[in-house]
Amino acid sequence: MPDQSESQSLPSTLRQIAFNFRLTGWISFWSQLVLAVVSSVVLLLFAVFSGNSSNKATNPGTGLGIFFALCGLAVLGGSIYWAFRYTRIARQLQSLNANTRPRKTDTIQVLRLGLLVNLGGMLLTLFGAYAIVGTLAARSISQPQIGLTLDTSRLISSLDMFAVQANINTIFGHFVGIVATLWLMDRVNRT
User: Fold this and answer.
1) What does the pLDDT look like over 103-129, one tens digit per residue?
2) Distance between CA atoms of residues 101 and 117, nearest Å
3) d(CA 154, CA 83)
4) Rounded Cα gap, residues 53 and 36, in angstroms
5) What is the pTM of this model?
6) What is the Cα–Cα distance from 177 to 33, expressed in whole angstroms?
7) Of 1, 181, 191, nearest in space to 88 by CA
8) Can you give the pLDDT at residue 142?
């Protein structure tokens, strides 16, 4: 990290952009990391307990939904790396050597790619959410409302809600990445 005298020789707009990249990168990194860890734990609990459950509903929608949820979670891992990369760009922007600083076009290209990563991850996770929620909705309406016979495989359990919760956390993680990237793009484009 440059000392006070070195940072004073940088133009104020460049210092401000570097500060924005560092702060936004760290906020995005930690927010997405916490959401990814929570989603991973919730999906792990879902996998462990649904594998041990005597009430296994063999619905292909749930399996497809979990597959897309895992894909979205993997892309969130890439987004976490991208948020960390923003902090490294901040460090490069603070360099006194103008040749080692990234050009504005290169920085915008990195931001665009980060935006595409988050949008793609959000799309995958939304596919998973639609598959899981659709499966749960189909199970809830297929259960007879009146009658003495009760098919417990069609009931929605708290375990099913774990998959929904994991998807929501992952979607929010991608949303954080999108907001951070768009905010940084706005700051870079103002100069």
Assistant:
1) 999 999 999 999 999 999 999 999 999
2) 24
3) 41
4) 25
5) 0.84
6) 11
7) 1
8) 73
